[in-house]
Every structure is written in C-alpha cells, then in structure tokens.
Amino acid sequence: MNYLQQTMKRVLMGPGPSDVDPRVLEALSRPTLGHLDPHFLEILDEVREQLKYVFRTTNELTLAMSGTGSAGMETCFANLVEPGDPVLVCINGVFGMRMADVAERCGAVVSRIEVEWGKVFDSEQIEQALKNKPAKVVSIVHAETSTGAGQPLEEISEIVHNHGALLLVDAVTSLGGMQLEVDAWRIDACYSGSQKCLSCPPGLSPVTFSSAAVKKMDQRKAKVQSWYLDLSMIRQYWGGERLYHHTAPVNMNYALLEALKMVSEEGLEHRWQRHVNNHQILKAGLEAIGIQFLAQPGHQLPMLNAVAVPEKVEDLAVRRQLLQEFGIEIGGGLGAFKGKAWRIGLMGASATQGNVMLFLAALEKCLAAQPYRFEKGAALAAAIAKAEN
Amino acid sequence: MNYLQQTMKRVLMGPGPSDVDPRVLEALSRPTLGHLDPHFLEILDEVREQLKYVFRTTNELTLAMSGTGSAGMETCFANLVEPGDPVLVCINGVFGMRMADVAERCGAVVSRIEVEWGKVFDSEQIEQALKNKPAKVVSIVHAETSTGAGQPLEEISEIVHNHGALLLVDAVTSLGGMQLEVDAWRIDACYSGSQKCLSCPPGLSPVTFSSAAVKKMDQRKAKVQSWYLDLSMIRQYWGGERLYHHTAPVNMNYALLEALKMVSEEGLEHRWQRHVNNHQILKAGLEAIGIQFLAQPGHQLPMLNAVAVPEKVEDLAVRRQLLQEFGIEIGGGLGAFKGKAWRIGLMGASATQGNVMLFLAALEKCLAAQPYRFEKGAALAAAIAKAEN
Hints:
2 copies of one chain form a homodimer.
Chain A lengths: L2 H4 L4 E2 L9 H7 L9 H18 L5 E5 L3 H12 L5 E6 L2 H12 L3 E6 L8 H10 L4 E5 L1 E2 L4 E2 L3 H9 L3 E5 L18 E3 L13 E5 L1 H8 L12 H8 L11 H17 L1 H21 L15 E5 L6 H12 L1 E2 L1 E2 L8 E5 L7 H16 L9 H11 L1
Parallel strand pairs in A: 1-12, 3-4, 3-5, 5-8, 8-9
Antiparallel strand pairs in A: 2-10, 6-7, 9-10, 11-14, 13-14
C-alpha cells in the first residue's frame, strides 16, 4: 500500500463523487458516537431538518438512508410498490433503465416508455401512456446522469396525479444543484445521493415521502421485501420512538449534516445559480473548440455536462491524460454512450470558475495530442468572455 | 446545533459501535477519490486482501458491502436463497430472529429451531432438525449480541455439510475479536459489520462466500430481489471487470482499510487474546459485586458481556449516569432482555484494561446511588487481582 496514493487529491469533475470541502471531511472524522446516544439522535434530527430545506418540503418522512443513491432508489420502490402493482417507468438513460429493473425485482408490473437518450419526456407522452395503461406509481429521472438531460416535472406531476398515481422522482444528481420543489411540484417519493451536488462523500441517500406515499405504505398488505430498507421500521428509529433498527452510519451522518449546513449557508437559490453560471462558462469554452453537448437544447443539466467525444479522438487516452497530468477526473459514457461521451461534472464544491478554467486548459492540452483540429486557446478565450458577462 | 455536543468523545462500551482509533478517523477524512479511480480500486483490492486475513479465508468473493451489518445479513440471504428454498434458522436471540425475518422476506421456506436466550445450540439439535426437515441453507449466529452467547461452529458445520446444506454465519460481533475460521470451519457465507471488533465507524459490512456458495448463486434462476445487494453485479465491480454498479462509499473504505491494517499489525491471535484477557478482568470485577452473566457458562463472549440488571436497580438511571458523568456508553437489553440486561462491550479499540477499570469504578459509583448492597471497592480489587495473574 502506497500511502501517497491513498491520500492523493483529485479534482473531481466526473458524474460524482464531487469534491468534498475540508469542513465536511473534518466533520466526518469526529469521534464516533453510539447510534442511540442522545447527542447523535439530535444530529439526526438536524439532518432531517436540513434535508427538508434542500428538498423544499415539509414531509415528516424525510431522512438519509444508510446506503448510496441506488439504495435510495430501491427504498422508494420496495416500500411504495406491492407485488402486482402497475408501475410506469420513463426511460431516457441508464438510471431510468435501472428504475425499471429495480421495480420489477420489487414485484411491480412495469410498463416502459422511452425517448432517445439525451431527450426529455413531453407531458403528453406520459398522459398517453397512462391512458393506455393505468399505473399506481410513475417514476422518472429528474437529472439523467448518463445523458446530461434535465427533465421538467411540473406538468408531468399534474398529469400523474390526475390519473390517481404517485410520482416517484430520481433526484440523485439534481438535489442541491438545480431547482427541485418536492412540495410545490407534488413529488410523492424522491431520492438522492450524498456525493453529487451536496458534496458529501458517498454512502448516504436522502429520501423524502409525501403523506400520500406514506398512506400507501401504511396500507401495505405484504411486508417490504427488503428488511434493511423497510421504512415501517426505519421510521421508528428516525422518529420519536427511537427504536433500534440497524446501526446508523454515524460518521457519515456528521459529514452529511456539515455538507447540508454549507448548502443552507450559501442559500439554495444562490447555489443553483452558481451551478448555472459555471455550466454556461464551461459550455461557451467547449463549444468554441467544436465540442457538442449530447442533451436536448434547453434541457442541458448545469451540473452534468455530457458531450460527444469528437471523431478520431481517443476517449480513454484523453481521460487518462487528464487524470495523470492534472489530477482531473471526468466520466466516460455509460450504456449506449459508452466510448462516445465525456461526462463533465460541476457539482457542489466542484462547481467553481477555477475548475472550469483548469479543465478547459487541460482539455486543450490533451486534445492537442489527438488528431483533432481546433484553434488553440479558443476554449479559454470563450470561457473568459462568458465569465466577464 | 451545539458543536460541543457533536464533537463529544465517548467511551464506547456498548454493543457497537466501538471506539475508533484516531488513525482510522484520519484515514476516513482523506480527500474523496472517484469510485473508478485506479488508486481507489487498488484500495478496494487491499481491503479484500485484509478481509481475507481476518476472515481466515482464501475466498475470492470477499468484499465490503455498502451498508451496515444488517445489509450484510440481507446480502447473504438475498443472494443464496431462491424463492421456495428451505432454510433452517437457529434462534437464540434477536439476531437469529432477524435472520428468520430476512430469510422469509427473500422467499425462503423457513424452519426455526430455538433454544433459550443465553444458551447455545448443540450439534445434535441441528442434526435432528435437518433429519426432520432438510434445508438448503442453515443459518446461525456466531456471537449473539443480544445475549452474549458464543456459538461453537465446527461440529455444526460438519453436520450441515453432511446434509448437503450450506452454512450461513452471522459474525457481526465476532469478526476480529474471537476465533473465526471461515475456511477451516467450512463456512459458506459469512457477514460482519465494520463497527464492532474491527473498530471502524459503522457503514460497511464485510462478507465472504465459499466456492459452494458462489456455485449456488451462479445457478440461480431468479434475479436477486435486491438490486442494491446483487452480488452477480457487485462482483464485477470488486473483481477484474471494474463495471460500475453503485458509487462505493469511498471514505468509509479508507477507514475500513486502516482499521484492518491495525488488526493485522496487532496480529489476529493476539487480538483475540486481548479480548479474552480484558473480558476475564471485567468478569472478575463484576462477579465480585454480585453481577451475574446471562450467557451459558463456557460460552460467554469476550467482546459482549451481557449481565443481569440486579433486582431493584433502575436500568435506565444507571446507564444515564454512566453516560452523563463518565461518558461511558453501555447497551441495554433487547427483546426478551429489555430492561433486564446490560450489555457491556469490549470490542476492538475499546477492549483495554483502562476501559475495564474505568467502567468498574464508574459502575460502583452509580450502583452506590441505587438500592443495591455490595462491598465498595470489591469490583476493582477483584479486577486488579485478576489483571495481575
């Protein structure tokens, strides 16, 4: 084991984890308390209050699940769905596909609607799908990390509720980085991850549930198939009774609380705006050297910039050089986009003008070693011009 | 939020988490790397090698699940059991009960055998149960955290395998604190937690699987019902292909590796002996003031000392005073032992002579405020005498 390797500091500009502020790392390393210690229970109460703030909700059933974002996804399906329940899953990337897989494993009868990767759904498509086949739950990804597409939710929510269904939203990549309104948009179940725009290390999954979702859970006939993710028990630990269920990841909750405090100190709207500003600077720079965004114009995510790897440019060689020479991590493509996409994250603490400029300079250097023609310096010039606006 | 509260340092002598060494807390707080970063993948490789050492196994499928010990339990059942599989669950405390619940949620047809809480199973009981009703999997708890009873496994393993079943063992509390021999005892599936005798914060669950267990998984017809815990995918991330499944809890793996290094630096056998020594000192002290152990003589765990709350002594008042005046956390009783037991942990970094002496002194002070007669100073005197042996 080489300790130098283990302590290496990267610039995390991939699809998550994002850079973690030293304040959060310091909180993570505080002495471990017992999971039933009164002081730790106060910390959990505060985690819940801070999560309500970032989710924009008053939902009492708001907490951090003891797993990563995918555990949050499974929590939502395992608790909301009973075997045989019809569920409509909207798929425009990897995480929609994952939702369908998870829902089926939970016994749902899944209907899928799909649009091309990079595109978003029109509310009429959802309306049509629900007319064709009613569903008890409609699930959709707010920010598709595999394509960089941001899905508008307000109209879809209205349609879903008009059809008597519950709306389940994947906000893994969006929470804390762009507008998400759990209450105002009537989202019934929503999950996220600690390591994206909240800039906490990976390991916890914030979730929140509306009273309608809680009602459906309360009326379950079958036990939740996952003991570990069973909210009927976990609620009694996070709630008043403080019944032991499993040993909460104590230190991870310290870190999440500190990360959430940093969000509320910055102010959620300011944080959203910071993500947009840095995305626009990055985009100006990339487009100036001919790099194309993959997501539908008007729906490109600020925190996850998915772009096409230019023809003849060697995906892996560029990403390896970025990592080795500059310590910059960006993501490659997943699924249908494997080998064809770069996913450049500007999430939470990573969404800084400094990172944008560093990345563009580093990318220009790496592209100069590739069979790719572009005007040297153009990316930075365009980015600086955009930043001065 | 009171920061002083959050940074409070306790003496963790409950059923886990145990005290975490500053070296481990420092590792936890190192800069976050990406979950596909080549350096992080090297760290995972080393976690696996170190886990093989503590599990005493050469099993290739050895890794840390991204959840707490109960997620490890569910991982074992969800992957090994297919709907309709007959499973024998041995119950002598809370965690045996939990195994039966989890197994049923995974679709197992569960048979239960039970012995009184605090007692351990005789190999003949297992033999008889398997003769009455064959099972594909037999599950049993090595160290029952709710009762302090340690279950011998060697003979049982032979019987289980003679009946063609797989042996699934809960080693949450035993791993790193007492002899556990995954290969020599032919344990097919074994799970633990990071926060007990490994003295890492809670949040990861080490698991290991024999080739027979892997073979059963490979022959599955049904998908594993939990996507998050599906080893057929997780193996491809921990193994050679490095396929993305979920974002590993990066910093928690740093901490686990550091904690495991501390185990191997101490040497596993020395560590087991340290636990026994401190248990004996504690036991001498407690018995000198009339405190009785709840587990069967000869099978009392070194790391989890479950004792009866003496008559007329107020359980909660004593535990509150220990916490408030001395910062010492011990556990109360669970389930059948609720209000009747104290569970005094001596796990990993908490298993020190200093902690034993501090605890006995503190307990004497707290008991002096209760309607309980004992010779003041006797606990410490007996402990010191034992320690001098």
